[in-house]
Amino acid sequence: MNIKTVLIAGALAALSVGAVAQTATPGANQRQSNQEKRIEAGEKSGALNATEANRLEKQQKIADNVEAKAKADGVVTKGERVKMHKVEKKTSKDIYKQKHDANTAN
Ligand SMILES: [Ca+2]
Ligand SMILES: [Ca+2]
User: Is residue 106 in some structural domain?
Assistant: First the structure.
């Protein structure tokens, strides 16, 4: 390996790291996994009945789809992050609402 090859390899490695950073959504993933846990806890405690849990799971899937679509072109733009956040925030609110309404599993 001559010095030129090493430099090119280094540049390529830096590029791929940059690409990962552009589509990385650790905040969104963390929020989604938190919400997943909140839904599970709600099912366990009975605060969420089966219908409510199913509906919330569906909303989680929609949030996943929004995230996948945002990432599909290799770049998650600021606008796409805002959109993802909005969907997650709505789910979060709905989880709270469904866990505190009169409909329970028992
Ligand atoms: Ca995009
Ligand atoms: Ca409920």
Answer: no
Going from the Cα of 18 to the center of ligand 1, the distance in angstroms, rounded, reads 15
Coil, strand, or helix at residue 37?
helix
Q: How many domains does the chain have?
A: 1
Please give all residues whose CB falls under 5 A of ion ligand 1, grouped by chain where several chains appear. 70, 73, 75
CA–CA separation, 55 vs 5, rounded Å?
54
In a domain, 87, yes or no: yes
* Ligand of minimum distance to the alpha carbon of 46: 2
Domain that holds residue 52: 3-99
Q: Find tokens 């609110």 and name the residue.
A: 93
Distance CA 60, CA 68 (A): 12
Q: Is residue 26 part of a domain?
A: yes
Whether the predicted model's global pTM rises above the 0.90 cut: no
- Establish if 91 belongs to a structural domain: yes
Residue-wise pLDDT tens digits, 10-68: 666 665 555 556 899 998 899 999 999 999 999 999 999 999 999 999 999 999 999 99
Quote the ligand 1 centre to 62 CA distance (angstroms): 16
